[in-house]
Amino acid sequence: MHLPEGPARTLTWAILITAVGNGLYLAGVVLFLTRAVGLTGTSVGIGLSIAGLLGLGAGPAVGHLADRIGPRTIYLVTLTAEALATAALALVHDFGAFVVVATVVSIAEQGSRAVRGALIAQVGGRGRAHLRGYLRAVTNIGVAVGAAGAGLAIQHDTYTAYLALILADAVSFLLAALVIARIPPCPPVRGVDDGRGIRRGRLDIPYLGVTGVYGLLSLQYPVLAVVLPLWIVTHTTAPAWLVSPLLLTNTLLVVCLQIRAGHRVESIADGVTITRHAAVLLAGGCVLFCASAAGPPIVACLLLVVAVIVHTLGEIGQAAGEFELSFNLAPDHAQGRYQGIFGMGTGICVAAAPALLSVLCIDWGQPGWILLGGVLLGAGLAVGPAARWAQRTSAHLVDA
Question: What predicted TM-score, i.e. pTM, was given to this entire model?
Answer without folding.
Answer: 0.81
